[in-house]
Design brief:
heterodimer, A: alpha/beta, disordered C terminus, B: mainly alpha, two-stranded antiparallel ribbon, 76% helix, 2% strand
């Protein structure tokens, strides 16, 4: 098995003593579409910062395609493309200049860089803006420019730190298609996002980080299979107070809305047949939250409770 | 292979740096020429005519090398200080930090950019000076060597300043409180041999004295200091400042968390 990324016992303590990473281990297979999720301040950006050498690690080891960043940093860097969370290009330069310069830092000559810039800008629908100053772009365009920039040296691993933050749904979906296409071409993608449906739709493997610790690291299907209860919301025509469902936990939200917990061992047919028997007509049904979101909240809460318990024990 | 990658990376940084100051040439190249013209008019024509000669040379001709050197110093320093700090502030320095660009290439690229601006401004000031004096050249190689080494020293100084700077105010403190006084006291407008013995001794610790005098020697063939000492001082400064800059960037001070 060839790994695009191997992280062992990675620790980071910032000046001031904040322990951002507490010895994380992570492996990302070549060609994977990998989600690194976690609440704000969990350590996702610190991890990405260390991989891309923007943050100095305190302890541990990072390898990119077998190249240890302590001994072979420059080789490791050639494999990586980074789309950071915040816009970090020169706002006063044109799109073409930004892309050609970035390619140059990887040793791509200007002629080839110009060809690649044209290809990337056309694919990301920015070609018409190629000579405009980057500050004139909309938020969504700036996000696409950052993706184009990260692809200029044909990286083997693309790391995207919340690439669709603040992007409208239409553009987000087109970016999903673009990322899927890149992954199909063999590029390993590591994604952090706060949109959990995005991770669920795109990623095959997932790690959840909380308080500097990996609380879950598995494939997406296995993780979703652990979800034992799903909550559905039903909009009904008749008075919701009349609904009685044996074996289901039912909460009345308002006169025409019910919230129902459906266990994994139960079927929706059982629920619907009971409702039909009672003459209750269902207008629409939706999940209360995304399945991954449910699991994420549980795992993160479990992690927080565990750390609180550890701190409480420590205090004693 | 790696050398070709480094060469292209260096060219990219140099291109970016030159493109940056050329894009705003009205702010970067024109003001020094105007300022130096005023020096020529006030210190050269108006006051200089009353001073007469200095070191056996017409006063206007005497101050020209120092004024050119003054513009080279301030521009090579401020170019790198403002450009590198802007890159830090806008975070586009990360474009280079994530790429396989060796630290020496980053230093060479920025310093090279500062040197080019310093020399272009020096050239424009030299052209302006031709309107006021009949410029003679005693030794072109000394002129070229001095201007290259001096601009490198101050470009490195500007880079170190930018690495430590946390705000735009921080990149104006050193030029205002250190560089300008040292330049004015560095023998631009007078020969240090005119000073009392004590102040001549004090002037020996001002590195700009060596740069101005070496440069003046290249034009006029006169100098208050030995050329060997002047070039030794310049080379020592370059080695020390380069080592400091490389250490700071390698450790990621001011750049990496």
């Amino acid at each position: 098995m060839q790994y695009a990324l191997e992280i062992s016992h990675l620790e980071k303590v910032y000046k001031g003593g904040f322990h951002a990473l507490k010895g994380i281990d992570l492996k990302v297979e070549k060609g994977d579409f990998f989600a690194l999720l976690g609440p704000n301040g969990a350590g996702k950006s610190t991890t990405i910062g260390i991989i891309t050498s923007l943050v100095n690690k305190t302890k541990g080891e990072v390898k990119v395609f077998g190249h240890n960043i302590d001994q072979q940093l420059e080789q490791a860097k050639t494999f990586l493309g980074l789309v950071p969370q915040e816009f970090n290009f020169n706002q006063f330069e044109s799109l073409l200049t930004i892309l050609i310069n970035q390619a140059g830092y990887y040793g791509v000559n200007r002629k080839l860089a110009l060809e690649r810039a044209e290809k990337q800008l056309k694919q990301l629908e920015l070609w018409d803006k190629r000579n405009d100053s980057a500050r004139m772009l909309s938020g969504g365009m700036k996000r696409r420019l950052m993706i184009a920039r990260a692809l200029m040296h044909n990286p083997q691993v693309l790391i995207l730190d919340e690439p669709t933050a603040g992007v409208d749904i239409e553009l987000r979906r087109s970016m999903w298609d673009f990322l899927r296409e890149l992954n199909q071409q063999g590029i390993t993608i590591i994604l952090t996002t706060h949109y959990l449906e995005e991770a669920e739709m795109l990623c095959r493997n997932i790690a959840i980080i909380d308080n500097g610790v990996i609380v879950e690291n598995t494939d997406m299907k296995s993780l979703l299979a652990t979800l034992d209860i799903e909550t559905v919301i039903l909009d009904i025509k008749t008075d919701s107070a009349k609904a009685k469902l044996n074996g289901f936990v039912v909460r009345q939200i308002d006169d025409h809305t019910l919230e129902i917990d459906v266990k994994k061992c139960q079927s929706l047919n059982q629920m619907f047949s009971q409702l039909t028997e009672q003459g209750i007509e269902v207008v629409s049904m939706r999940n209360k939250s995304n399945r991954l979101e449910e699991l994420f909240v549980r795992l993160v809460n479990k992690g927080s409770n565990a750390s609180a318990n550890v701190e409480a024990v420590g205090a004693n | 292979m790696q050398s070709a990658v480094n060469r292209i990376a260096l060219q990219s940084i140099l291109y970016k740096e030159v493109h940056r100051f050329m894009r705003i040439w009205v702010q970067t190249l024109v003001p020094p020429a105007i300022t130096i013209s005023l020096y020529f008019v006030i210190f050269g024509s108006l006051i200089g005519s009353r001073i007469g000669e200095m070191g056996g040379i017409d006063y206007m001709s005497f101050i020209v090398p120092g004024l050119i050197m003054m513009s080279v110093i301030t521009n090579s320093y401020s170019n790198v200080a403002s450009s590198f700090f802007s890159a830090k502030w806008q975070r586009n320095v990360e474009e280079m930090l994530v790429a396989p660009v060796p630290n020496w290439v980053i230093v060479a690229g920025y310093v090279g950019g500062g040197m080019i601006r310093g020399m272009l401004v020096g050239l424009s000031v030299t052209i302006v000076s031709l309107l006021f004096v009949d410029l003679q050249i005693h030794n072109i190689w000394v002129i070229i060597a001095t201007v290259c080494l001096t601009s490198a020293v101050f470009a490195l100084g500007g880079l170190i300043n930018a690495i430590f700077a946390n705000s735009f105010d921080d990149i104006s403190i050193i030029p205002t409180f250190i560089l300008t006084p040292l330049t004015y006291l560095g023998g631009v407008f007078y020969s240090i041999s005119l000073l009392p013995e004590f102040w001549q001794g004090v002037s020996q610790i001002n590195p700009i004295v060596y740069m101005v005098n070496a440069f003046r020697y290249g034009f006029l063939g006169i100098s208050d200091v030995s050329l060997t000492v002047a070039f030794s001082v310049l080379i020592t400064f370059i080695i020390v400042l380069y080592t400091i800059a490389m250490t700071l960037i390698s450790k990621g001070i001011g750049l990496r968390s």
